[in-house]
Amino acid sequence: MEDKIEKALLVGLNITSATKRDDNIDINESMEELKELTKAAGAEVVGSLIQNRQSKDSTYYVGKGKVEEIKAYSDSLGATMVIFNDELSGAHIRNIEEVVGIKIIDRTTLILDIFAQRALSKEGKLQVELAQLKYRLPRLYGIGGQMSRTGAGIGTRGPGEQKLEIDKRNILNKAADIRRELREVKKNRETQRVQRLKSNLPIVALVGYTNAGKSTLLNELIKTHKDYDKEKEVMAKDMLFATLDVTLRKAILPNKKEFLVVDTVGFVSKLPHDLVEAFKATLEEVKYADLILHVIDATNSSYELQKNTTESVLKELNVTDKPIILVYNKIDKLELDIYPKNREDIIYISAKKGINMDKLLNMIQQAVMKNTYDVFLLLPYDKGHIFSKIKDKYSVDEFEYVEDGTKLRVSLDEEDYNIYKEYIIKG
Ligand SMILES: Nc1nc2c(ncn2[C@@H]2O[C@H](COP(=O)(O)OP(=O)(O)OP(=O)(O)O)[C@@H](O)[C@H]2O)c(=O)[nH]1
Ligand SMILES: [Mg+2]
User: Fold this and answer.
1) Which ligand number lies closest to the CA of residue 36?
2) How far apart are CA 403 and CA 396, in angstroms?
3) How confident is the prediction for the chain on average, in pLDDT?
């Protein structure tokens, strides 16, 4: 059943006192993003208000007078909900709701709602559900253990809204169940990962702000593979949070070696902490990557902010010691000479138009093939155990049985190169 399209009035608080601000996000850019998020959630934006204040109001967040103004404005616009640009406490939401008389939600609820709509994998769904429960838990206090909100639409999707009269205990139990289920799913993924690591293919993870072009880049990179077909492409769309699930695909380097590309969920400023927590498990794939491509939308006026946001989420995920290439994307939309010269760890591309893909692939190769040695080995027949060992660890592209043993071609890491040096022959 489709919900009726909701009409949202957006409200932002611009804290003017330097000591009370906890970020230096430009309010206009932030409101622009809130608008995109609202659209991504499937609602229509009918108006937008910004309140400048020294600090938050303890009762009404933006102040009593402003809340009354919101009431009048939302009435005149026929708004069905008001969305605040920050995370609000349960008390703030109730106080404001009392005056305004329509549904009040915050940025966190909005983002969680988008995630709830988009999550496809079992793990993704469980993670969002857990994050939603964690968000709701502290907001149950003080209202007699009851959630007063009813109805449909944004902020009401997800874990058993119909059952939200259930008390804190039930929520805690449910969260524990989900955690248990997640552990199961995780075990599965662990097994898959072990197999992947055994295949010894280099892993390249795409990370970055939402809508930067990560999925488009993945689709472009996998075209290098002989098994490429359109079916293997992932969804790439002009929409915030198009991707929620981690996807792995194979691609080919200029030296004909295979590597794995990992597409990940995009980041956004003020990403709810619970969600980052929840997605840590999925984003763990990033931790096992040999190389990170940080994709940046070079045409976005807030790309610096977006870059910093991504960097701080990576830090939060404890991804600090990986080689990173900054991939400035969408240069087809830029004046060609306004960007600086390519550096070792920076490249300018257009994933959509396939510009500079060959350069990027060479950079990837440089970074992931640093310590591998492409060699031919001749293993005498009484060294069969070495052949099996090598086959377990590497993908052996070519081998043949010749008179004095098995001749094979393989890319060894440094350690094995030194171990098996004596068997190296000329191609
Ligand atoms: N002009 C131009 N548009 C691009 C380019 N790369 C991607 N886009 C567009 O940017 C939009 C977002 O692309 P996606 O690949 O879905 O972005 P993403 O980083 O995967 O986004 P999320 O999954 O939401 O985090 C789509 O409309 C793409 O067509 C490019 O090189 N040039
Ligand atoms: Mg994507």
Assistant:
1) 1
2) 20
3) 85
* pLDDT tens, position by position, 242-259: 777 778 899 999 988 899
The CA distance from 218 to 258, in Å, is 14
Given the structure tokens 């469980």, which residue do they identify? 126
CA of 149 to the centre of ligand 1 (A): 36
Beta bridge partners of 231: none
Ligand 1 pocket residue status of 356, Cβ below 6 Å: no
pTM, entire model: 0.79
Q: Which residues contact 385 (CB under 8 A, 6 or more apart)?
A: none
**Residue 117, amino acid:** Q
Strand partners, 405: 402
Question: Ligand 1: which atom is nearest the Cα of residue 219?
Answer: 15
- Both structure tokens of 119: 């999550």
Strands (DSSP E) along 148-234, which ranges?
A: 203-208
Residue 295 alpha carbon, nearest atom of ligand 1: 19
CA 229–ligand 1 middle distance (angstroms): 20
Burial 189-216 (b: 16+ CB within 10 A, else e): beeebeeeeeebbbbbbbbbbbbbbbbb
| Domains of the chain, each with CATH number or no CATH | 7-117 (3.40.50.11060), 119-183 (no CATH), 201-368 (3.40.50.300), 372-425 (no CATH)
For residue 213 the two structure tokens come to: 């072009």
